[in-house]
Amino acid sequence: MAGKVKWVTDIEKSVLINNFEKRGWVQVTENEDWNFYWMSVQTIRNVFSVEAGYRLSDDQIVNHFPNHYELTRKDLMVKNIKRYRKELEKEGSPLAEKDENGKYLYLFVSQSNKEAYVISLYINNPLLIGGRKFDLRLYVLVSTYRPLRCYMYKLGFCRFCTVKYTPSTSELDNMFVHLTNVAIQKHGEDYNHIHGGKWTVSNLRLYLESTRGKEVTSKLFDEIHWIIVQSLKAVAPVMNNDKHCFECYGYDIIIDDKLKPWLIEVNASPSLTSSTANDRILKYNLINDTLNIAVPNGEIPDCKWNKSPPKEVLGNYEILYDEELAQGDGADRELRSRQGQSLGPRAGRSRDSGRAILTTWK
Amino acid sequence: MLQEESDLSLIIAQIVQKLKGSNLYSQLERQAWASLQRPEIKLESLKEDIKEFFKISGWEKKLQNAVYSELSVFPLPSHPAAPPEHLKEPLVYMRKAQGSWEKRILKSLNSMCTELSIPLARKRPVGEQKELLNKWNEMGTDEPDLSLFRPVYAPKDFLEVLINLRNPNYENGDSLSFRTHLGLIQVPLKVKDIPELKECFVELGLNIGQLGIDDSTQVPPELFENEHVRIGQKVLSEQDSAAAQQYIRQGSPTALRAELWALILNISSQPEDVLYYEQLKTNVIQHDLLVDSLIYKDVKLTASNDDYYFVFEDYLYQVLLCFSRDTSVLSHFAFNSASPPKSYIRGKLGLEEYAVFYPPNGVIPFHGFSMYVAPLCFLYHEPSKLYQIFREMYVRFFFRLHSISSHPSGIVSLCLLFETLLQTYLPQLFYHLREIGAQPLRISFKWMVRAFSGYLATDQLLLLWDRILGYNSLEILAVLAAAVFAFRAVNLMEVTSLAAAEAVLADLSTLKVMPLLQIFLFATVT
């Protein structure tokens, strides 16, 4: 039975290839018998397309869900959140509460802006550190949507603008100020190749705890986790929960000066290019931990497995939400992702020792 | 007994004299006058009643903190008849060495000045002043041509001076004995050994809770952390400097650190302080100094490239440019072996009436100077408070790291302490490194001069600086340096060159300082 895992990829990145090779996996082409395919989003479309698609066998795994765009396309995500919110309202969940003007208190979405290339949620009071604007990039791995099982990578990072932020209108033209994606920052004059304008999330945490206090910082991070889980729950019902799939998302989040987080967008194919040495190490470890969870023991996969890896292989991931665990023992084991009201305590210990996710954001 | 009493009255007299000129004095006076309106103040028992009032309203605490601050900063007079130079530095040969070092620095600065034909100071034209004012919060985006500027000196230049220090009254003799010091520093200063250090740093012991060890995720917070945080909050509400200093020896919780440091340093951010900072800012706008370019260059070379501190680049300019112009810093030269450089108005060389201190605060920055400020940016985001904290840290601690003196926290003693610890407790390692031409001090010197800023991860650095404040001493830097060598001893024993030894010790960013210190002091067989 012990054959080597055969892998294919159409993304030529060393952080990927080095990880496959270190496991002793064998590279093949997509026309051959393969077990693991790390594909781009175009390719996943082909695999699952109505005309040209093909059936995946039990020993084949791919790194995207067929209709991930329900989450990663902003207009579809908005649609799914609105639908999810309506369901919560029907169930009388406190999450669907509205204020006196009829606006939703939680789970609200940005208005307007159908342009795809402009940030849809423009916040004019972002939290500034050292006078600079930044956004957060967090990695979230989903192994299954029903039951929802997702993991958060502990080593996310902040991406700082190289140019000073000022809300004056003349600055609105300066592309570098408002769009913090590294790919664009890289071409700004002040880009630095040692730190790449990036901070670890632990730096952010240290800074916020030192300057704002522990409670509000913990609350912020709780809220960030909450937003991510909500976004996944919102799309879970419409997601094609194909057993051959897992997906690692890049979540972009901005924090405003009241320490409230806002979800900007979700990326199905987060960049695997490294801008600095630290970056390369981080992404290498990210892929490594992702593969350890998605392909247990590095052996030829069997899609019938229960997708419940042991704690030891998580590496730098920690469990963000596990619907099965949240249902509790003895309760109805049949998983219905529409049960919005019991988000339950987060499984697994984290730095904010065991506090239930929901208690603090009010 | 009589001697002690007269010493004490001398100290009291000095402190009273110092505090009489302070803002606190006028505030207390005002409060005392205002309290006469209160019903509990009676004419018959005026003195006691006012004292009682001060106690209840917290003013006595403020006075206590001020007195404590003076005691911590100002060295005790050795003898009433001692001349002022003795307060700066009692040993003549050290004073002389510091004097020649200063001459060299000034010469270097003046020649750079002449080469580049840039004046030491000039008044900015109005247009330039306006521009700078607009750009005040983003001076980092400025890209002046700094290629011709060089730092006035780097730590390794300073190390060479220290290596050549000799006490002319001390004859080593040519023969080697077991007492021969094998390190680079060859002056006979008294340094502590491990038993003495254990007594001194008793709160770092194995059976005492520490932040940096007993707050890790594996340890349930009920064991130590929760109680420690609770005590910290109590200390803050009591506003007691001395208690805060004792408390912080076990480390400070991140959320309380900014306030605790301010309490220990007795910084309270009054409106006058903000005003003073604004005044300094105006000075920066109006006049340009040559040292400004040195500061720019230093920040660009060090902090801007640092993973943790690059974000705060602009704050560093705002602090350091103002610092250069702050003449109140001159008062610390009374107990600093260094003296502020003097410069003369053009054409009036040698005429004392036309002498000025240059830069106005008397401190010439060297390569890496901005790293003293950088870690503070994680705690204080309001520029005038950040400024005050840095200034106080400088006049209490940092100045000792780049001036030649015999003080136990001075860099010379720290180097000697480091080398002695290594030679005494890790003799095999020390001997091996010496044999391959890798004298340990050559590697650890830069760590100590910078108080490890830029070498440790920020959260670890802050835990270390907690202890500097807690023990009011920099000796912990030397102990940590030795502990790092002890930790990497196995790898170091295998290297065969200085470059390889540097490589083993190049990256300290993963080190956890408190376990290292604890093991070195309390768990190593001596």
From TrEMBL, chain A:
**Residue numbers spanned by region Disordered:** 330-362
Query: Main localisation, per the record?
Result: cytoplasm
User: Taxonomically, which superkingdom?
Assistant: Eukaryota
Give me any GO biological process, just one: immune response in nasopharyngeal-associated lymphoid tissue
Question: Which InterPro entries does this chain map to?
Answer: TTL/TTLL_fam
Write out the entry's keywords from A to Z: ATP-binding, Cell projection, Cilium, Cytoplasm, Cytoskeleton, Ligase, Microtubule, Nucleotide-binding
Name where it's found: Cytoplasm, Cytoskeleton, Cilium basal body
Coiled-coil positions: none
Tell me one GO molecular function of this protein: ATP binding
- Asked if the keyword Membrane belongs to this entry, the reply reads no
**Any matching Pfam family:** TTL
Q: Which reaction does it catalyse?
A: (L-glutamyl)(n)-gamma-L-glutamyl-L-glutamyl-[protein] + L-glutamate + ATP = (L-glutamyl)(n+1)-gamma-L-glutamyl-L-glutamyl-[protein] + ADP + phosphate + H(+)
GO terms for CC? ciliary basal body; extracellular region; microtubule
As for family, the record states: Belongs to the tubulin polyglutamylase family.
Cross-referenced PANTHER family: POLYGLUTAMYLASE COMPLEX SUBUNIT TTLL1 (PTHR12241:SF31), TUBULIN POLYGLUTAMYLASE (PTHR12241)
**How is the subunit organization of this protein annotated in UniProt?**
Part of the neuronal tubulin polyglutamylase complex which contains TPGS1, TPGS2, TTLL1, LRRC49 and NICN1. Interacts with PCM1, CSTPP1 and LRRC49.
The identity of this protein, by name, is Polyglutamylase complex subunit TTLL1
Task: State the species of origin.
Answer: Gorilla gorilla gorilla
Lineage, highest ranks first: Eukaryota, Metazoa, Chordata, Craniata, Vertebrata
